[in-house]
Amino acid sequence: MTPSYIASLLRLTLHALVARPAVTLSAAGFMFANNLVFFVTWAIYFANFSALRGWRLEDVALLIGMVVWAYGVAVVFAGGVRTMARTIVDGGLDVHLGRPQHPLPSLLFGRPVPSGLGDMASALPFWLWLGGRSVSDLPLLILAATSAAVILGSAVAIMQCLVFWWPRALGFCEQLYEMFVMVTYYPQHAYGFGARVLLLTVFPAALIGFLPTEAVRAHSALLVAAVVGAAVVYAALALLVFNLGLRRYASGNRFAELR
Amino acid sequence: MSARSLYPLLAYATLGWRRAVTNLLDLLGNVLLYWVILAIFWGLWSATPLHELGTEFTQERLFAYLAVTEWIAFAVGLPYREVEAEIQGGTIDMRLARPIPFGLATLAIWVGEAACRSVVLASAGVGALLYALGTIPLPMPSGALLLASVALSVILVLLWHLQIGLVAAWLGMSAPTFWIWQKLLFVFGGLIMPLTIYPAGFGAVAKASPFAAMLFAPGSLMLQDGAEHAAWTIGLQLAWLALSILCAVAVERAAVRRFVEHGTSR
To answer: Taking CB atoms and an 8 Å cutoff, what residues of chain B touch A26?
Structure first.
């Protein structure tokens, strides 16, 4: 898994995006609008209520900016993560196993999702306009949100690996993924202690939006380091789980389901 | 439409029901997702200074409202994807050749699936309400009305899914149209908050939109009692249902015309 190999894969991913510019631009544009429309709900909420446990509209905008950037980066650069479970169940992993490098990078860094560019672009108005942050905050925002993207991609990869052990859980993996993404969009400081611990560890939704947002709000180097550290840990964990699952992948083309 | 022509539709609906019921893991995932959303908003509403509203909205009422709107959203699922996939794959021509109109047959299957999910999610919703509130904040006659209203909502939303799926006949994909439509449904339909707490002008626009009939109307039965409100709810839904049927028929005819002129394989 050399850096030059990963760089080549990422280059191919970007080429795939520009191959059909009209499709890419329209999907990105729709996603951009979609994210802004969703924010209206929060605007209405804060038109009625002064704060949500100390959070105001700007803080929620910051959080949504974090999540959409993380999601956008994950699906643009590692779009294969969305279809990983299906690829495994369909026996499509064979193609990646036949390559001279570890199969995970080629599995992940393919199939870019064009709408992810719209997600990434919409993060900027969320941060700079609705979130009231300045351009000087951008490096910190991008660092925290890109780390969150690594956590998101890794957590989703771990969820998708479930089909190595449980091939019939394909639909369940999809719902687990949707559940995960959905939870990330809401501020988690309103929950109880137990729920927050769960959201910072086993189901790390709070590491995608809430913790990076708190890191930027507080300008806390410690929290930023925690997010970056979590990204490294979750990436390693995803690799470990994938390797463990790979030992069970012994099919020529498809998993044999024992009913 | 004669009673005899209803048999194939019933068969399609049964097929849809079976398709949903045999996929137990999907049903389980739906229930979990539904509970997670309810848990998120239970936490959010409990952290919200509701006294600032200055009205009678309580955490319990808003939670019950959300249980209904999310019930509808989850019961429907994302069926537009099937139509989109059929158009993208060019397999829709096989469906068009059948004696039952494509839209009608597709809707019948979806109604069967949604009915199955609705039953499961209703049990999950009742469980969540009993767990969180210790009671179901709805008298029995209103309960029957709520079921009728939810059924109308589900059909209404499915009619729009059909049209969104058919958008792929022109654009080659339906997903981007769906994203925007879905977010408009969430905002103008009052998925999370009832339209009555929206700013006056915005709330009036939302109430005049078809989205209000899809989510807010049935959800409002958890907030407001009385025959007058019930009549408004059902009346609004029936009016939008009639309009939506006309739109769906027009869109399907236009899509079929396009397939005939341009072919189905992309």
So the answer is: 171, 176
Does the CB of A30 have a partner CB in chain B at under 8 Å?
yes
CB contact under 8 A, B199 and A178: no
Dihedral over Cα of B171, B247, B70, A188: its sign = positive
**B175–A52: do the CB atoms touch at under 8 Å?**
no
Which of A49, A160, A193 to substitute to test the interface with B, most B CBs within 10 Å?
Answer: A49
pLDDT band for B202, please (50, 70, 90 cuts).
Answer: very high
Note the ipTM here: 0.84
pLDDT at A256: 47
pLDDT band at A226 (very low <50, low <70, confident <90, very high): very high
With cut-offs at 50, 70 and 90, classify the pLDDT of residue B55.
low
Report CB contact under 8 Å: B25, A168. Answer: yes
Q: pTM score, two decimals? A: 0.86
Question: Is there a contact between A195 and B43 if contact means CB atoms under 8 Å apart?
Answer: yes
Out of A115, A172, A174, the one facing B28 most closely (by C-beta) is A172
Chain A residues in contact with B28 (beta carbon < 8 A): 172
Mean pLDDT along residues B243-262: 94
DSSP notation for chain A: --HHHHHHHHHHHHHHHHHSHHHHHHHHHHHHHHHHHHHHHHHHHHHH-S-BTTB-HHHHHHHHHHHHHHHHHHHHHSGGGGGHHHHHHTTTHHHHHTSSS-HHHHHHSSS--THHHHHHHHHHIIIIIIS---GGGHHHHHHHHHHHHHHHHHHHHHHHTHHHH-GGGHHHHHHHHHHHHHHHTS--TTS-HHHHHHHHTTS-GGGTTHHHHHHHHHT-HHHHHHHHHHHHHHHHHHHHHHHHHHTT---SSSPPP--
Interface test with chain B among A34, A82, A159, by most B beta carbons within 10 Å: A34
Would the CB atoms of A171 and B53 count as touching at under 8 Å? no
